[in-house]
Write a structure and sequence with these properties.
Shape: globular
Largest sheet: 8 strands, parallel, barrel
Strand order of the largest sheet: 1-2-3-4-5-6-7-8
Amino acid sequence: MIFLSLKTYKEATGDSVIKLLSPVKSILQESGVQIFPVAQPSDIYRIKKELGIEVWAQHMDPIDPGKNMGWLSPYALKDAGAAGVVINHSEHKLDKETAKKTLDKAKEYGFKTLLIGHNVEDVIEFDSWEPDYISYERPDMIGGGVSMLTVEKDNVLKLVSDLKRPLIIGAGVSTGEDVRQAISLGAKGAILASAFVLSSNPEAKLRELVAGLKS
């Protein structure tokens, strides 16, 4: 599976995000690979309505509807059409207590969950909380163009051996070969952002990534 982290890039906002994601449905139907765009809250409803594909939220707060000015409501995200939520990305880090509360609240609302850990110890601890998917990302290697697997192979092998939840690899993943290597080590997929969003040919890049999962 591939998680497309769209962040707040202008290339993944408003009209542009519809154009960016327009090939997703046909590619997932052709390949059978699960592809999950992780969108800004302002675009979730539109993506779901116009493209008819599964879409995830980038964050939520552990709240219920009510007096929560400025917070991101799981009720609203669910109503907009989000099927899942990413929790604890390095660009929106949470303390462990809040991460656990957020995960529990996401489960309460029926979201699929991807919980991100930034070191091996946290990933192992987070796995015991039973998210649907667990991701390992070294923050210092995100967006650098060099796959984390170049220096974290042994840790990834340890995690694959120890974890009960499916492992998703991020940080520097940018090519089909990076994805192929992650799968060969036992991971179940990848999460990436700029390699897709900022590509000169996003459809070709997505097909390359999907091919890495199937090779």
